Amino acid sequence: MAEHECNGSSDDLVQLTKTAENIVRCFIYRMLEKVINKSSCEENFRLHFSLLPEPVLCEIRAVKEYLRKCESSYSTEKDSWFIHKAVQILEEQGGIAIQKYHHAFLSLINQLQITDEYNFAYTQFVEVAKKLFENDNIAWSHIVSLICFGVEISVYIVEHGKVGLASFLKKICSFIVDFIVKEEILQWIAQHGGWIKMIDFFDDPNCQFRTNHILAAMAISELTNIEVWLQRFFVASLVSGIIVIAWRKWHQP
């Protein structure tokens, strides 16, 4: 069944899951390639293809070739072409969000408390990723922000990469897809016409503020970060006040 014929049946959900796996994998490795290409051109480059293990390089090349074939398959295989178009939309819309809200994403990554072995549990990922979905609301902007979060984690891990990098990148892709399935986001996608509607939403020329949808979603994580600092400031002020009162009472004649 073609992706655009989604009607919410169990078969559709299976197809939507497979589509999610393809989109997430392709976008993460595609953006990883772009970041490394950009970094390699800088004087003090942080990343270079020569620093990556061969399994990661193979995956980057495989994704690049797969997307090339998808792009040229419009007349013969619409479903494959759709993957190319979805990744292209993510590159356009998500790329801007990653650039503008890089520090907000890093704040979320810090909350994952990634160990020296660059490991963290799925439960930790869920707790942090949910902050991208205000009041449990689901929208295309939140979904794109979630996938962009996966890109930022991947870049962070590659920058600090150690043994097991290839399997860890696959783990990130798996976490994102599992989150989409288990947090009922996949059901929402099915009810809203499938992944093809994400393309329609961001590709609509009448949608003048397409990027703002993404930026609004990322502002949620920044707000969360501000709230954390305000809470810390309040606690610190309260403790300081108690200490001052106690000191004055202690030193009263």
UniProtKB/TrEMBL annotation:
GO terms, molecular function: BH domain binding; porin activity
A GO CC term attached to the entry: mitochondrial outer membrane
Transmembrane regions: 229-247
Keyword Nucleotide-binding attached: no
Top-rank taxon, per record: Eukaryota
InterPro entries, sorted: Bcl-2-like_sf (IPR036834), Bcl-2_BH1-3 (IPR046371), Bcl-2_fam (IPR026298), Bcl2-like (IPR002475)
Protein source organism: Hydra vulgaris (Hydra)
Alphabetized SUPFAM superfamilies for the sequence: Bcl-2 inhibitors of programmed cell death
Keyword Kinase in annotation: no
Bcl-2 Bcl-2 homology region 1-3 domain mapped to chain residues: 90-195
GO biological process: extrinsic apoptotic signaling pathway in absence of ligand; intrinsic apoptotic signaling pathway in response to DNA damage; regulation of apoptotic process; release of cytochrome c from mitochondria
Name the UniProt record assigns to this protein: Bak-like 2
Protein keywords: Apoptosis, Membrane, Transmembrane, Transmembrane helix
Family: Belongs to the Bcl-2 family.
Signal peptide: none
